[in-house]
Amino acid sequence: LPKDHHPPPPTHFPARKLVSRSVYALLPLAFLHFYFFPRPLASPHIATTAPVFPTLSTTASPPQRRPRAVSPAAAAAATAPPHCDLFAGQWVKAAREPLYDGSSCATIKDGQNCMAHGRPDTGYLHWRWQPRGCTLPPFDAAAFLRRLRGRHLAFVGDSMARNQLESLLCLLATAAPPELVYRDGEDNKFRRWRFRSYNATISVFWSPFLVRGVEKSAASGLDHNELYLDAVDVRWASELWSIDVVVLSVGHWFLHPAVFYEKGGEVVVGCHYCPKLNHTEVGFYGVYRKAFRTALNAAATDTGGGGRSRYVVVTTFSPSHFEGEWDKAGACPKTEPYAEKTVEGMDAEMRRVQLEEVAAARRRAPAVVAVEALDVTGLALLRADGHPGPYMYANPFADGVPERVQNDCVHWCLPGPIDAWNEIFLEMVRRWAAGDAHRVRRCK
């Protein structure tokens, strides 16, 4: 408007009255339009172009990219409901073959190489985990390695942690070869691999208690373990500054006889199954909780400074399936999963301790740290068919059925059910990328 032009005085609004009356007349027509011709609401979706680990990329993506093919696994992930409970579901028969076998993967521990050791049945290989309400995509090795680019993933714990690690290595080897770059000793307790084409690192740390401990052995002269419940195991904790993702997995070693200490060994808390010692019997559930609390405090708070983010995952207790004596031929003879089985007794209590400590650690953790449970206890309980059993050794019945035969009804055949742990792990990480880290499951 020209500078000398002014609007009419406020007492004259013929144009505004006309507009107001027009609006009142049009409102009923608008409601009728939306009633008979409703506009669809936008449906929620998970972004498939964002990195799975939010902190893995240090440079911005270019504004334009050449279109690329989408794998079936990625397509399935893009269409899966974002908030279904990954750990409630069932095992269903699957026609697809495992992604690897005992000859194509060189990192399988000999005792878990069931196919190479002559296990005659193969049905245990053809089941997949089906969460209720969504589809769990097949493992996508290249997608996992892209998200791990430039980062360090560490498995910390006992032989079950190693079992899950070796499953993951075999799965990832279908996309890129792992290169062993570090080994401490010949017992494979501390190892590190590099996927050079992805600049990704994966380590395993033997730490069967997560806290500082002395294992019973001829070398230590002990017939029981010694645990220091308020002191984290420095063998892995001293490297936390370099670790971006840490998976903690322990349980079965807490069932062994042990003496428990606090305050640097000055205070004896008690013991578990130590009739020859003058200590109070305290069982192992309480000390199991204390050990997890100590470990989670370290993993969730020691981020190396500078606002470095970290993902902390606790793989929950994996039940064993011995039927009768461990040295009988049929110690775990199942060849198909259970259709239904309830987690109870010791398995339920061990799981409960872990879930409660995960929830507590999540509340204490800084904003840059996500703490989650990979809650496999229930789905593992159903897979009594997936253990090596007598095939922890090669051809155990080549010369007939011996009177005594050692069985492994604790660890898992590779390939086998434990590969599903890592399929779920990848899906959990996809949800982290979508900002849903604390909705992976309900902690019951």
From TrEMBL:
Pfam families hit by this protein: PC-Esterase (PF13839), PMR5N (PF14416)
Keywords: Golgi apparatus, Membrane, Signal-anchor, Transmembrane, Transmembrane helix
Record-annotated Trichome birefringence-like C-terminal domain positions: 136-428
Domain Trichome birefringence-like N-terminal: 83-134
Topology with respect to the bilayer: Single-pass type II membrane protein
Gene Ontology molecular function terms on file: xylan O-acetyltransferase activity
GO cellular component, one term: Golgi membrane
Annotated compartments: Golgi apparatus membrane
Listed InterPro entries: TBL, TBL_C, TBL_N
Similarity comment text for this entry: Belongs to the PC-esterase family. TBL subfamily.
Descriptive protein name: Trichome birefringence-like N-terminal domain-containing protein
Species assigned in the record: Colocasia esculenta (Wild taro)
